[in-house]
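Worked Example 4.2. Consider the chain below.
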Amino acid sequence: MFSETRYALNGDLRVAYRTSREGPRDIVYVPNWFTNCEVVPELPSFRGWVEAMTSLGRLIFFDQPGTGASDPVTPDALPTLEQWADSITGVLDDLGSSEAVLTASNAAFAPAALFAATHPSRTTALVVLDGFADASGTRFIQDEIEAAIARMWGSGKIQHQVNPDMPWNEEIRATWARMERLAASPRTVALMLQLVSELDVRAVLSTIRVPTLVVQHADGLVIPPAKGKFIAEHIPGAKYVEVSGRNWYHIVEPGWRASFQEIAEFLTGHQADVPEDRVLATVLFTDIVDSTRQAAEIGDRDWHALLDAHDAVVRAQLARFRGREVNTSGDGFLAMFDGPQRAIRCAMAIRDAVQSLGIEVRAGLHTGECEVRGDDIGGIAVHIGARVAALARANEVLVSSTLRDLVIGSGLEFEEHGAHQLKGVPGEWRLLAVASA
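Applying the procedure from the previous section yields the following structure tokens:
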């Protein structure tokens, strides 16, 4: 969907950027100082918003100097606010674009505001998502918060803290951790946070003369709504909208649709129809028991042949029971089903069929609302399914009580497996093992 990374000139600095295909308007996502345009457009947490925004125009991502794929800078020569705004000019010039919509989140509002005020003829509109004109009253200026961000940087964990409503599991954490490491080093993060705490563009607001939309989370954890209201009250003619949610970003699950619809209506004059991508499904996780030991015993060549045979068996059973393969990871499968009984019977069939190969599998299942993200799925239901599978023993098909309740009358029988705390999932969960068909 996105171009290879290209470079625009901002003075003697090269600014990395990527674009989606051509559209009715150009939309620049003005970044903060912790992004990498090589990764951001494909980040699973952003995928839904990115795909929706590309329906409105050509979406442009870039990295500010000193971060991501752009030229590095030295600690004693960090870019100024003016230079950050000039990055927008450089990217638009390199694309041959006369004007664009600027979309900016949190601290990125400062360079976007300066550009919009300075270059109104090149600014189609300004969209502000949980922005602030000065950092006072935000959590950025608390020393302990800055220290925590720098200390945790590269682990992905800070993203869950500032986006508490965002779906979260180990896979999501790992993708964010990689993005962080490719975006900036902990030292760079500490330097940039210090600059962010000093940003103040309040004097610029009254000089902005472009159509402006300010969208703010009603219960923003990092940026209080008062910050967005202040921006809207001081930019002539600006529209202010509050949407529910606590996340720092408006472009992650679960709340991006509400913000996107406000943006779409503001830019096009009509409410966008966002495809529904939440469905009730049964998720199945399987993996080979004791795979590391077996691989070491038989060697790489025979192990890969065995894995190929295992994969063929699993796929044959998925086709038989109307399951959809979502992804594979090493010796494991994630699949989804539109019927819980079929999912359980498929798991049992896989368990029985692979025994002829001399291997054993474990399987875990849960039924719940899933978020469909292109060919992938996410959400708490997927997280629960993975945790259930991790507790299964060899040759065991383990299910949550939620799923068991949906197959009453099917002839399937279950044995109690006890109540469990599932890591990262609130509450106590009663699990059951499938006993017989």
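The chain has a mean pLDDT of 90. The longest strand covers residues 361-373. Compare this with Example 4.1 before moving on.
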